[in-house]
């Protein structure tokens, strides 16, 4: 398994991003601390220079593990379940931009908040159908570009679709899209998955990206989540890709990153 941490191309206060707004610093810190990659939350890929990012990857020999897209929902209000067709179309165009961008780095594209919330007056099935239609179009584009979308099960307080690993697995079984897989996040699992380890085993063929975040959203080891067990199950199911620390920069980015790599290394031993 490989290690990474989440950042953002934008400066965000108290977000789940380390060294946010300073990509060069992220790469140099990642290299110094021994991370294999960084995951970058990018609301709009047009706002990041592809050539600059490519040269940082080469300069520091640190990979881009994933591109997170939640900012397109949070900042720009785009979503796959919007009642407005023009909004859904803009959301599809934006995710295609993320996919094209990610294809330069063999990074996965995370879809969490972009699914949106169930609009008032709409049933869950109706809203889910809109999400599926958008995903179908993005899936075609992902397949053409050789990249994968990963759906993230997110807890019920933050979004309205597929809260647990098994709900997400059932949905993926139903939609059958070649380039749409799943990622899992320990923070959400801790809230939604009553039998976390068996749920991971059942969804193993879909899981291609992982967020490590303790029960309090601090670095692994700073809360009460059982990461040694999660890492053991990941090994057991043959998971080989990134475990990416998605954590608060508390008390500061450098201390949080140092704590994260120290813990993650100890679990991987
Ligand atoms: C939010 O809770 C989260 O886990 C992010 O990865 C959402 O995309
Ligand atoms: Mn996450």
Describe this structure in words.
The mean pLDDT is 97. The chain contains ten helices and eight strands. Strands 1-2-3-4-5-6-7-8 form an eight-stranded parallel barrel, surrounded by six helices. The protein is an alpha/beta fold and 269 residues long. The structure holds L-Erythrulose (LER) and manganese (II) ion.
- Beta content comes to 15-25%
Order of helices and strands: EHEHEHHEHEHEHHEHEH
Q: Averaged pLDDT, please?
A: 97
First-to-last CA distance: 11 Å
Low-confidence spans: none
Largest sheet: spatial strand order: 1-2-3-4-5-6-7-8
Helical fraction equals 40-55%
* SS elements, strand count: 8
Biggest pleated-sheet summary: 8 strands, parallel, barrel
Rg (C-alpha, Å): 17 Å
Quickly list its features:
44% helix; binds L-Erythrulose; 10 helices; 15% strand; 269 residues; binds manganese (II) ion; alpha/beta
């Amino acid at each position: 398994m490989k290690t990474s941490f989440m950042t953002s191309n934008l400066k965000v206060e108290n977000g789940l991003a380390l060294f946010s707004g300073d990509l060069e610093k992220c790469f140099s810190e990642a290299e110094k601390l021994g991370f294999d990659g960084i995951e970058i939350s990018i609301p709009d890929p047009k706002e990041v220079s592809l050539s600059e990012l490519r040269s940082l990857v080469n300069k520091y020999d640190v990979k881009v593990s994933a591109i997170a897209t939640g900012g397109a929902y949070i900042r720009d209000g785009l979503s796959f379940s919007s009642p407005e067709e023009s909004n859904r179309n803009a959301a599809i165009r934006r995710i295609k931009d993320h996919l094209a961008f990610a294809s330069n780095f063999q990074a996965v594209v995370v879809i969490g908040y972009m699914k949106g919330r169930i609009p008032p007056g709409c049933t869950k099935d109706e809203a889910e159908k809109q999400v599926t239609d958008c995903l179908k179009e993005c899936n075609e584009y992902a397949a053409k570009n050789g990249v994968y979308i990963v759906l993230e099960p997110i807890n019920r307080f933050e979004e309205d679709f597929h809260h647990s690993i098994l709900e997400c697995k059932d949905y993926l079984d139903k939609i059958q899209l070649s380039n749409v897989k799943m990622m899992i996040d320990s923070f959400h699992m801790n809230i939604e998955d009553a039998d976390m380890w068996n749920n991971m085993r059942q969804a193993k063929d879909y899981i291609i990206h992982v967020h490590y975040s303790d029960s309090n959203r601090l670095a692994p080891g700073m809360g009460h989540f059982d990461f040694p067990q999660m890492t053991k199950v990941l090994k057991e199911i043959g998971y080989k890709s990134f475990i990416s620390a998605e954590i608060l920069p508390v008390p500061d980015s450098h201390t949080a990153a140092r704590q994260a790599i120290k813990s993650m290394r100890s679990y991987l031993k």
